[in-house]
Specification:
By secondary structure, the chain is an alpha/beta fold. The chain has 19 helices and 14 strands. The protein has helices at residues 12-24, 44-48, 65-74, 81-93, 106-128, 155-165, 203-214, 222-228, 243-248, 250-261, 267-277, 290-297, 332-337, 344-355, 388-405, 415-421, 428-431, 450-455, 459-488; strands at residues 2-6, 32-36, 132-138, 141-147, 170-175, 178-182, 187-190, 323-327, 363-367, 374-377, 380-383, 409-413, 435-438, 442-447. The protein has a 5-stranded mixed β-sheet with strand order 3-4-5-6-7, with helices on one face. A 5-stranded mixed β-sheet has the order 9-8-12-14-13, sandwiched between helices. A two-stranded parallel ribbon has the order 1-2. The chain starts with a strand and ends with a helix.
Length: 489
Amino acid sequence: MRRVVLSGRGELAEWRDAARALAAAGILPEEIDWREKSAEADLSFQRDAMPPAPAASRKPMTVPPAFIELAETVLCHCDTARFSLLYRLLWRLQLDRRLLEVASDEDVARARLMAKNVRRDAHKMTAFVRFKEVGAVSAGRRKFLAWFEPDHHIVRRTAPFFQRRFTDMDWLIATPKGSAAWDGDRLTIADEPCEKPDLSDATDELWRTYYSSIFNPARLKVKAMQAEMPKKYWKNLPEADLIPDLIASAESKVREMVARETTQSLPFHDRIQEAARNLPAEPDAPAGTWEALRAEAAVCTRCPLHANATQTVFGEGPRDAQVMFVGEQPGDQEDIAGRPFVGPAGRLLDQVISEAGIDRSTLYVTNAVKHFKYEPRGKRRIHQKPNMGEVKHCRRWLDLELALVKPKLIVAMGATALAALTDVKERLQDVRGKAMAIEGGRTLFVTVHPSYLLRIPDERLKAEEMARFRVDMLKIQRLMASVKQIDSG
Protein backbone atom coordinates (compact mmCIF):
# COMPACT_ATOMS: atom_id res chain seq x y z
CA MET A 1 0.00 0.00 0.00
CA ARG A 2 1.44 3.37 -1.03
CA ARG A 3 0.67 6.30 1.26
CA VAL A 4 0.21 9.72 -0.38
CA VAL A 5 -0.10 12.77 1.86
CA LEU A 6 -1.48 16.05 0.51
CA SER A 7 -2.03 19.41 2.17
CA GLY A 8 -5.61 19.31 0.88
CA ARG A 9 -6.48 22.99 0.75
CA GLY A 10 -8.61 22.82 -2.35
CA GLU A 11 -5.86 23.13 -4.98
CA LEU A 12 -6.39 21.08 -8.10
CA ALA A 13 -2.71 21.19 -9.13
CA GLU A 14 -1.56 19.40 -5.97
CA TRP A 15 -3.85 16.40 -6.43
CA ARG A 16 -3.53 16.40 -10.21
CA ASP A 17 0.28 16.16 -10.13
CA ALA A 18 0.18 13.27 -7.66
CA ALA A 19 -2.61 11.46 -9.52
CA ARG A 20 -0.85 11.92 -12.86
CA ALA A 21 2.39 10.39 -11.55
CA LEU A 22 0.60 7.49 -9.86
CA ALA A 23 -1.49 6.73 -12.93
CA ALA A 24 1.57 6.85 -15.20
CA ALA A 25 3.22 4.25 -12.95
CA GLY A 26 0.11 2.03 -13.16
CA ILE A 27 -0.72 2.30 -9.44
CA LEU A 28 -4.33 1.08 -9.01
CA PRO A 29 -6.82 2.98 -6.83
CA GLU A 30 -6.99 0.22 -4.22
CA GLU A 31 -3.17 0.36 -3.82
CA ILE A 32 -3.11 3.94 -2.52
CA ASP A 33 -3.73 5.27 0.99
CA TRP A 34 -4.55 8.96 0.51
CA ARG A 35 -4.02 11.16 3.55
CA GLU A 36 -4.39 14.83 4.41
CA LYS A 37 -1.33 16.46 5.93
CA SER A 38 -1.65 17.52 9.56
CA ALA A 39 0.51 19.78 11.65
CA GLU A 40 2.10 16.66 13.21
CA ALA A 41 3.09 15.04 9.90
CA ASP A 42 6.48 13.28 10.21
CA LEU A 43 9.34 12.93 7.76
CA SER A 44 7.59 10.02 6.04
CA PHE A 45 5.60 12.69 4.21
CA GLN A 46 8.66 13.63 2.19
CA ARG A 47 9.46 10.04 1.28
CA ASP A 48 5.89 9.05 0.51
CA ALA A 49 5.33 12.15 -1.59
CA MET A 50 8.03 11.15 -4.06
CA PRO A 51 6.35 10.20 -7.34
CA PRO A 52 6.82 6.62 -8.58
CA ALA A 53 8.71 5.90 -11.77
CA PRO A 54 6.41 5.93 -14.81
CA ALA A 55 5.71 2.70 -16.67
CA ALA A 56 7.15 3.02 -20.16
CA SER A 57 4.34 1.02 -21.72
CA ARG A 58 1.48 3.09 -20.30
CA LYS A 59 -0.33 5.75 -22.28
CA PRO A 60 -1.19 9.05 -20.54
CA MET A 61 -4.67 9.11 -19.07
CA THR A 62 -7.16 11.62 -20.45
CA VAL A 63 -10.42 12.90 -18.99
CA PRO A 64 -13.37 14.97 -20.29
CA PRO A 65 -13.51 18.67 -19.30
CA ALA A 66 -16.46 17.94 -16.97
CA PHE A 67 -14.17 15.87 -14.74
CA ILE A 68 -11.72 18.75 -14.28
CA GLU A 69 -14.55 21.06 -13.26
CA LEU A 70 -15.94 18.43 -10.87
CA ALA A 71 -12.52 17.73 -9.36
CA GLU A 72 -11.81 21.43 -8.75
CA THR A 73 -14.97 21.59 -6.64
CA VAL A 74 -14.74 18.20 -4.89
CA LEU A 75 -11.15 18.88 -3.77
CA CYS A 76 -12.48 21.76 -1.65
CA HIS A 77 -14.53 19.29 0.42
CA CYS A 78 -13.26 18.42 3.91
CA ASP A 79 -13.77 14.64 3.56
CA THR A 80 -10.38 12.95 3.09
CA ALA A 81 -12.11 10.31 0.94
CA ARG A 82 -12.28 12.92 -1.83
CA PHE A 83 -8.76 12.08 -3.02
CA SER A 84 -9.40 8.37 -3.46
CA LEU A 85 -12.87 9.00 -4.94
CA LEU A 86 -11.48 11.24 -7.67
CA TYR A 87 -8.60 8.87 -8.41
CA ARG A 88 -11.05 5.98 -8.73
CA LEU A 89 -13.19 8.04 -11.13
CA LEU A 90 -10.05 8.89 -13.10
CA TRP A 91 -9.35 5.20 -13.71
CA ARG A 92 -12.96 4.34 -14.47
CA LEU A 93 -13.20 7.16 -17.03
CA GLN A 94 -10.56 5.42 -19.13
CA LEU A 95 -13.05 2.57 -19.68
CA ASP A 96 -16.24 4.65 -19.89
CA ARG A 97 -15.91 8.25 -21.10
CA ARG A 98 -19.61 8.90 -20.35
CA LEU A 99 -19.39 7.73 -16.75
CA LEU A 100 -20.12 11.16 -15.29
CA GLU A 101 -23.48 11.16 -17.09
CA VAL A 102 -24.63 8.14 -15.06
CA ALA A 103 -26.29 9.90 -12.12
CA SER A 104 -27.15 6.58 -10.43
CA ASP A 105 -23.52 5.46 -10.24
CA GLU A 106 -22.39 5.40 -6.58
CA ASP A 107 -19.06 7.16 -7.17
CA VAL A 108 -20.60 9.79 -9.45
CA ALA A 109 -23.46 10.44 -7.02
CA ARG A 110 -21.05 10.83 -4.11
CA ALA A 111 -18.81 13.22 -6.04
CA ARG A 112 -21.80 15.31 -7.11
CA LEU A 113 -23.04 15.50 -3.53
CA MET A 114 -19.62 16.67 -2.35
CA ALA A 115 -19.55 19.30 -5.08
CA LYS A 116 -23.04 20.45 -4.12
CA ASN A 117 -22.02 20.84 -0.47
CA VAL A 118 -18.96 22.87 -1.47
CA ARG A 119 -20.99 25.18 -3.71
CA ARG A 120 -23.55 25.66 -0.96
CA ASP A 121 -20.83 26.48 1.56
CA ALA A 122 -19.30 29.01 -0.85
CA HIS A 123 -22.72 30.59 -1.40
CA LYS A 124 -23.21 30.91 2.36
CA MET A 125 -19.82 32.60 2.65
CA THR A 126 -20.77 35.23 0.08
CA ALA A 127 -24.08 35.77 1.91
CA PHE A 128 -22.97 35.83 5.55
CA VAL A 129 -19.54 37.50 5.65
CA ARG A 130 -19.84 40.73 7.65
CA PHE A 131 -16.99 43.23 7.24
CA LYS A 132 -16.10 45.48 10.16
CA GLU A 133 -13.97 48.59 9.77
CA VAL A 134 -10.71 48.21 11.72
CA GLY A 135 -8.34 50.83 10.34
CA ALA A 136 -8.21 54.49 9.48
CA VAL A 137 -8.41 55.66 5.90
CA SER A 138 -5.01 55.39 4.21
CA ALA A 139 -4.42 56.79 0.74
CA GLY A 140 -8.18 57.06 0.31
CA ARG A 141 -8.76 53.39 1.21
CA ARG A 142 -10.50 51.99 4.30
CA LYS A 143 -9.50 48.75 6.05
CA PHE A 144 -11.95 46.00 6.99
CA LEU A 145 -11.85 42.64 8.73
CA ALA A 146 -14.34 39.74 8.62
CA TRP A 147 -14.64 36.35 10.30
CA PHE A 148 -16.31 33.29 8.80
CA GLU A 149 -16.44 29.59 9.74
CA PRO A 150 -16.78 27.46 6.58
CA ASP A 151 -17.34 23.72 6.55
CA HIS A 152 -14.99 23.16 3.64
CA HIS A 153 -11.80 24.59 2.09
CA ILE A 154 -13.55 27.34 0.13
CA VAL A 155 -11.47 30.42 0.99
CA ARG A 156 -9.32 30.16 -2.14
CA ARG A 157 -12.40 29.41 -4.26
CA THR A 158 -14.54 32.29 -2.93
CA ALA A 159 -11.94 35.05 -2.45
CA PRO A 160 -12.14 36.31 -6.09
CA PHE A 161 -15.83 37.11 -5.52
CA PHE A 162 -14.94 39.50 -2.69
CA GLN A 163 -12.08 40.98 -4.71
CA ARG A 164 -14.47 41.88 -7.53
CA ARG A 165 -17.17 43.19 -5.23
CA PHE A 166 -15.05 45.10 -2.70
CA THR A 167 -12.15 46.19 -4.86
CA ASP A 168 -12.19 49.76 -3.51
CA MET A 169 -11.28 48.82 0.07
CA ASP A 170 -8.58 46.83 1.84
CA TRP A 171 -9.92 43.75 3.60
CA LEU A 172 -9.01 40.50 5.31
CA ILE A 173 -11.33 37.51 5.69
CA ALA A 174 -10.12 35.20 8.47
CA THR A 175 -11.37 31.63 8.90
CA PRO A 176 -10.29 28.44 10.72
CA LYS A 177 -9.36 27.09 7.28
CA GLY A 178 -7.15 29.94 6.10
CA SER A 179 -7.50 33.56 5.10
CA ALA A 180 -7.82 35.86 2.09
CA ALA A 181 -6.61 39.46 1.91
CA TRP A 182 -6.89 42.25 -0.68
CA ASP A 183 -4.81 45.45 -0.62
CA GLY A 184 -5.95 47.04 -3.85
CA ASP A 185 -3.17 45.45 -5.89
CA ARG A 186 -2.86 41.80 -4.91
CA LEU A 187 -5.12 39.04 -3.60
CA THR A 188 -3.26 36.94 -1.03
CA ILE A 189 -4.38 33.50 0.14
CA ALA A 190 -2.92 31.87 3.25
CA ASP A 191 -3.66 28.30 4.38
CA GLU A 192 -2.78 28.78 8.06
CA PRO A 193 -5.86 28.63 10.34
CA CYS A 194 -6.87 31.85 12.07
CA GLU A 195 -8.30 32.56 15.51
CA LYS A 196 -11.55 34.44 15.85
CA PRO A 197 -11.02 38.17 16.51
CA ASP A 198 -13.33 40.48 18.46
CA LEU A 199 -15.41 42.21 15.80
CA SER A 200 -18.19 43.89 17.78
CA ASP A 201 -18.82 47.50 16.74
CA ALA A 202 -21.54 50.12 16.25
CA THR A 203 -22.62 48.70 12.88
CA ASP A 204 -24.09 45.64 14.64
CA GLU A 205 -27.08 47.74 15.66
CA LEU A 206 -27.55 48.90 12.07
CA TRP A 207 -27.70 45.27 10.91
CA ARG A 208 -30.30 44.50 13.59
CA THR A 209 -32.41 47.50 12.61
CA TYR A 210 -32.24 46.57 8.93
CA TYR A 211 -33.12 42.92 9.51
CA SER A 212 -36.08 43.66 11.78
CA SER A 213 -37.44 46.15 9.25
CA ILE A 214 -37.40 43.67 6.33
CA PHE A 215 -38.70 40.68 8.33
CA ASN A 216 -42.15 39.71 7.03
CA PRO A 217 -44.04 37.49 9.51
CA ALA A 218 -46.68 36.62 6.90
CA ARG A 219 -44.04 34.90 4.77
CA LEU A 220 -42.29 33.15 7.65
CA LYS A 221 -41.40 29.50 7.03
CA VAL A 222 -39.08 28.47 9.82
CA LYS A 223 -37.65 25.38 8.12
CA ALA A 224 -37.00 27.23 4.88
CA MET A 225 -35.43 30.14 6.77
CA GLN A 226 -33.11 27.82 8.70
CA ALA A 227 -32.18 26.07 5.45
CA GLU A 228 -31.10 29.41 3.99
CA MET A 229 -29.61 30.72 7.25
CA PRO A 230 -28.51 27.65 9.25
CA LYS A 231 -28.12 28.10 12.98
CA LYS A 232 -24.37 27.45 12.85
CA TYR A 233 -23.94 30.88 11.20
CA TRP A 234 -26.05 32.76 13.73
CA LYS A 235 -23.30 33.28 16.30
CA ASN A 236 -21.36 35.43 13.83
CA LEU A 237 -24.34 37.47 12.57
CA PRO A 238 -25.33 40.51 14.67
CA GLU A 239 -28.96 40.29 13.54
CA ALA A 240 -29.32 36.61 14.52
CA ASP A 241 -30.10 37.34 18.17
CA LEU A 242 -33.39 38.91 16.99
CA ILE A 243 -34.60 35.75 15.23
CA PRO A 244 -36.09 33.81 18.20
CA ASP A 245 -38.25 36.77 19.26
CA LEU A 246 -39.28 37.52 15.66
CA ILE A 247 -40.40 33.91 15.20
CA ALA A 248 -42.25 33.87 18.53
CA SER A 249 -44.18 37.07 17.71
CA ALA A 250 -44.85 36.24 14.05
CA GLU A 251 -48.33 34.75 14.57
CA SER A 252 -49.65 37.74 16.52
CA LYS A 253 -48.19 40.15 13.97
CA VAL A 254 -49.86 38.29 11.11
CA ARG A 255 -53.21 38.63 12.90
CA GLU A 256 -52.58 42.36 13.24
CA MET A 257 -51.72 42.61 9.52
CA VAL A 258 -54.92 40.78 8.55
CA ALA A 259 -56.96 43.06 10.78
CA ARG A 260 -55.44 46.11 9.11
CA GLU A 261 -55.96 44.66 5.61
CA THR A 262 -59.67 44.08 6.22
CA THR A 263 -60.16 47.79 6.93
CA GLN A 264 -57.66 49.25 4.46
CA SER A 265 -57.64 49.06 0.68
CA LEU A 266 -55.20 50.21 -1.94
CA PRO A 267 -55.58 53.75 -3.43
CA PHE A 268 -56.45 52.23 -6.84
CA HIS A 269 -59.46 50.49 -5.33
CA ASP A 270 -60.42 53.51 -3.25
CA ARG A 271 -60.99 55.54 -6.43
CA ILE A 272 -63.14 52.88 -8.09
CA GLN A 273 -65.12 52.09 -4.96
CA GLU A 274 -65.70 55.79 -4.30
CA ALA A 275 -67.09 56.15 -7.81
CA ALA A 276 -69.41 53.19 -7.20
CA ARG A 277 -70.72 54.77 -3.99
CA ASN A 278 -71.63 57.95 -5.90
CA LEU A 279 -73.89 56.11 -8.37
CA PRO A 280 -77.66 56.73 -8.03
CA ALA A 281 -79.27 54.46 -5.45
CA GLU A 282 -81.38 51.55 -6.71
CA PRO A 283 -84.48 50.19 -4.98
CA ASP A 284 -83.92 47.23 -2.67
CA ALA A 285 -84.48 43.87 -4.35
CA PRO A 286 -87.02 41.46 -2.84
CA ALA A 287 -85.47 38.95 -0.43
CA GLY A 288 -84.64 35.55 -1.89
CA THR A 289 -84.07 36.82 -5.42
CA TRP A 290 -80.88 36.73 -7.46
CA GLU A 291 -80.64 40.52 -7.30
CA ALA A 292 -80.85 40.47 -3.49
CA LEU A 293 -78.19 37.78 -3.35
CA ARG A 294 -75.89 39.77 -5.63
CA ALA A 295 -76.36 42.89 -3.50
CA GLU A 296 -75.54 40.96 -0.33
CA ALA A 297 -72.41 39.47 -1.89
CA ALA A 298 -71.27 42.91 -3.03
CA VAL A 299 -70.50 43.85 0.59
CA CYS A 300 -69.04 40.47 1.61
CA THR A 301 -66.16 40.60 4.11
CA ARG A 302 -66.09 36.89 5.00
CA CYS A 303 -62.38 36.59 4.14
CA PRO A 304 -59.48 39.08 3.71
CA LEU A 305 -59.62 38.88 -0.11
CA HIS A 306 -62.22 41.62 -0.26
CA ALA A 307 -59.75 44.19 1.10
CA ASN A 308 -57.61 44.43 -2.04
CA ALA A 309 -60.18 43.44 -4.66
CA THR A 310 -61.94 46.19 -6.59
CA GLN A 311 -65.35 44.58 -6.17
CA THR A 312 -67.23 41.32 -5.81
CA VAL A 313 -67.57 39.56 -9.18
CA PHE A 314 -70.84 37.65 -9.02
CA GLY A 315 -72.18 35.17 -11.56
CA GLU A 316 -74.26 36.14 -14.56
CA GLY A 317 -76.62 34.46 -16.99
CA PRO A 318 -80.24 33.28 -17.17
CA ARG A 319 -81.75 32.69 -13.72
CA ASP A 320 -83.25 29.43 -14.99
CA ALA A 321 -80.18 28.23 -16.95
CA GLN A 322 -79.95 24.48 -17.28
CA VAL A 323 -76.13 24.65 -17.42
CA MET A 324 -73.78 26.40 -15.01
CA PHE A 325 -70.03 26.87 -15.71
CA VAL A 326 -67.92 27.34 -12.57
CA GLY A 327 -64.34 28.67 -12.71
CA GLU A 328 -61.77 29.43 -10.03
CA GLN A 329 -61.86 33.19 -9.37
CA PRO A 330 -62.10 36.47 -11.30
CA GLY A 331 -58.94 37.74 -12.97
CA ASP A 332 -57.55 41.24 -13.37
CA GLN A 333 -59.99 42.35 -16.08
CA GLU A 334 -62.96 40.68 -14.39
CA ASP A 335 -62.10 42.46 -11.12
CA ILE A 336 -62.25 45.85 -12.84
CA ALA A 337 -65.29 45.11 -15.03
CA GLY A 338 -67.27 43.33 -12.30
CA ARG A 339 -68.23 40.51 -14.70
CA PRO A 340 -66.99 36.91 -14.91
CA PHE A 341 -64.94 35.58 -17.84
CA VAL A 342 -64.40 38.79 -19.81
CA GLY A 343 -60.57 38.61 -19.86
CA PRO A 344 -58.24 36.43 -21.99
CA ALA A 345 -59.50 33.18 -20.44
CA GLY A 346 -63.10 34.25 -21.01
CA ARG A 347 -62.44 35.10 -24.64
CA LEU A 348 -60.82 31.70 -25.18
CA LEU A 349 -63.81 30.00 -23.53
CA ASP A 350 -66.22 31.95 -25.75
CA GLN A 351 -64.31 30.88 -28.86
CA VAL A 352 -64.21 27.17 -28.00
CA ILE A 353 -67.83 26.85 -26.84
CA SER A 354 -68.97 28.70 -29.96
CA GLU A 355 -67.04 26.19 -32.11
CA ALA A 356 -68.82 23.42 -30.20
CA GLY A 357 -72.23 24.93 -30.96
CA ILE A 358 -72.88 26.26 -27.42
CA ASP A 359 -74.52 29.65 -26.98
CA ARG A 360 -72.96 31.44 -24.00
CA SER A 361 -76.12 33.49 -23.48
CA THR A 362 -77.85 30.28 -22.36
CA LEU A 363 -75.22 29.55 -19.68
CA TYR A 364 -74.94 30.77 -16.12
CA VAL A 365 -71.22 31.53 -15.56
CA THR A 366 -69.67 32.08 -12.15
CA ASN A 367 -66.59 31.38 -10.00
CA ALA A 368 -65.90 29.41 -6.85
CA VAL A 369 -64.29 32.53 -5.31
CA LYS A 370 -65.83 35.94 -5.93
CA HIS A 371 -62.86 38.23 -5.23
CA PHE A 372 -59.61 38.57 -7.20
CA LYS A 373 -56.57 37.26 -5.30
CA TYR A 374 -53.30 38.61 -6.58
CA GLU A 375 -49.77 39.76 -5.78
CA PRO A 376 -48.81 43.31 -6.90
CA ARG A 377 -45.62 43.53 -8.99
CA GLY A 378 -45.02 47.09 -10.03
CA LYS A 379 -48.05 48.13 -12.04
CA ARG A 380 -49.14 44.54 -12.68
CA ARG A 381 -51.37 42.33 -10.54
CA ILE A 382 -50.26 38.69 -10.71
CA HIS A 383 -52.92 36.02 -10.12
CA GLN A 384 -52.54 33.86 -7.00
CA LYS A 385 -54.40 30.62 -6.39
CA PRO A 386 -56.98 30.89 -3.58
CA ASN A 387 -56.42 28.56 -0.64
CA MET A 388 -59.02 26.13 0.66
CA GLY A 389 -59.97 28.45 3.53
CA GLU A 390 -60.90 31.17 1.05
CA VAL A 391 -62.77 28.65 -1.11
CA LYS A 392 -64.78 27.48 1.90
CA HIS A 393 -65.65 31.06 2.89
CA CYS A 394 -67.03 31.65 -0.63
CA ARG A 395 -68.89 28.32 -0.75
CA ARG A 396 -71.95 30.05 0.74
CA TRP A 397 -72.42 32.23 -2.35
CA LEU A 398 -71.93 29.31 -4.74
CA ASP A 399 -74.45 27.18 -2.83
CA LEU A 400 -77.01 30.02 -2.96
CA GLU A 401 -76.43 30.46 -6.71
CA LEU A 402 -77.02 26.73 -7.23
CA ALA A 403 -80.18 26.86 -5.14
CA LEU A 404 -81.60 29.81 -7.13
CA VAL A 405 -80.57 28.81 -10.67
CA LYS A 406 -81.14 25.04 -10.21
CA PRO A 407 -78.94 23.89 -13.13
CA LYS A 408 -79.19 20.32 -14.35
CA LEU A 409 -75.59 20.24 -15.61
CA ILE A 410 -72.61 21.85 -13.84
CA VAL A 411 -69.23 22.22 -15.54
CA ALA A 412 -66.29 22.49 -13.12
CA MET A 413 -63.34 24.20 -14.83
CA GLY A 414 -60.17 23.52 -12.86
CA ALA A 415 -59.23 21.90 -9.56
CA THR A 416 -60.48 24.77 -7.39
CA ALA A 417 -63.96 24.59 -8.90
CA LEU A 418 -63.99 20.82 -8.49
CA ALA A 419 -63.02 21.12 -4.81
CA ALA A 420 -65.68 23.79 -4.22
CA LEU A 421 -68.45 21.69 -5.75
CA THR A 422 -67.64 18.23 -4.36
CA ASP A 423 -65.67 16.35 -1.76
CA VAL A 424 -63.88 14.40 -4.48
CA LYS A 425 -60.28 13.63 -3.47
CA GLU A 426 -59.15 12.47 -6.91
CA ARG A 427 -56.80 14.47 -9.11
CA LEU A 428 -58.43 16.63 -11.74
CA GLN A 429 -56.71 14.69 -14.54
CA ASP A 430 -58.25 11.46 -13.24
CA VAL A 431 -61.82 12.76 -13.57
CA ARG A 432 -61.40 15.15 -16.49
CA GLY A 433 -63.76 14.58 -19.39
CA LYS A 434 -66.15 12.51 -17.30
CA ALA A 435 -69.76 13.12 -16.33
CA MET A 436 -70.56 12.30 -12.69
CA ALA A 437 -73.85 12.18 -10.86
CA ILE A 438 -73.91 14.44 -7.79
CA GLU A 439 -76.50 15.30 -5.15
CA GLY A 440 -79.69 17.02 -6.19
CA GLY A 441 -80.07 14.87 -9.30
CA ARG A 442 -77.46 16.96 -11.13
CA THR A 443 -74.65 15.99 -13.45
CA LEU A 444 -71.11 17.31 -12.96
CA PHE A 445 -68.63 17.46 -15.85
CA VAL A 446 -64.96 18.23 -15.14
CA THR A 447 -62.49 19.95 -17.44
CA VAL A 448 -59.54 22.32 -17.18
CA HIS A 449 -59.71 26.07 -16.73
CA PRO A 450 -59.04 27.98 -19.97
CA SER A 451 -56.35 30.05 -18.20
CA TYR A 452 -54.35 26.82 -17.86
CA LEU A 453 -54.24 26.56 -21.65
CA LEU A 454 -52.98 30.14 -21.94
CA ARG A 455 -50.09 29.46 -19.54
CA ILE A 456 -48.64 26.40 -21.33
CA PRO A 457 -45.23 27.47 -22.73
CA ASP A 458 -44.65 24.45 -24.97
CA GLU A 459 -46.49 24.96 -28.27
CA ARG A 460 -46.83 21.24 -28.99
CA LEU A 461 -48.32 20.53 -25.58
CA LYS A 462 -50.57 23.58 -25.86
CA ALA A 463 -51.96 22.31 -29.17
CA GLU A 464 -52.63 18.88 -27.64
CA GLU A 465 -54.38 20.39 -24.60
CA MET A 466 -56.44 22.74 -26.78
CA ALA A 467 -57.62 19.75 -28.78
CA ARG A 468 -58.64 17.95 -25.58
CA PHE A 469 -60.47 21.06 -24.37
CA ARG A 470 -62.44 21.22 -27.63
CA VAL A 471 -63.37 17.56 -27.22
CA ASP A 472 -64.57 18.34 -23.67
CA MET A 473 -66.79 21.15 -25.00
CA LEU A 474 -68.30 18.81 -27.60
CA LYS A 475 -69.10 16.33 -24.82
CA ILE A 476 -70.74 19.15 -22.85
CA GLN A 477 -72.78 20.12 -25.92
CA ARG A 478 -74.08 16.55 -26.18
CA LEU A 479 -74.87 16.48 -22.44
CA MET A 480 -76.80 19.75 -22.83
CA ALA A 481 -78.82 18.24 -25.66
CA SER A 482 -79.69 15.20 -23.53
CA VAL A 483 -80.74 17.48 -20.64
CA LYS A 484 -83.10 19.35 -22.97
CA GLN A 485 -84.61 16.07 -24.20
CA ILE A 486 -85.28 14.93 -20.64
CA ASP A 487 -86.95 18.24 -19.78
CA SER A 488 -89.07 18.25 -22.93
CA GLY A 489 -90.03 14.59 -22.36
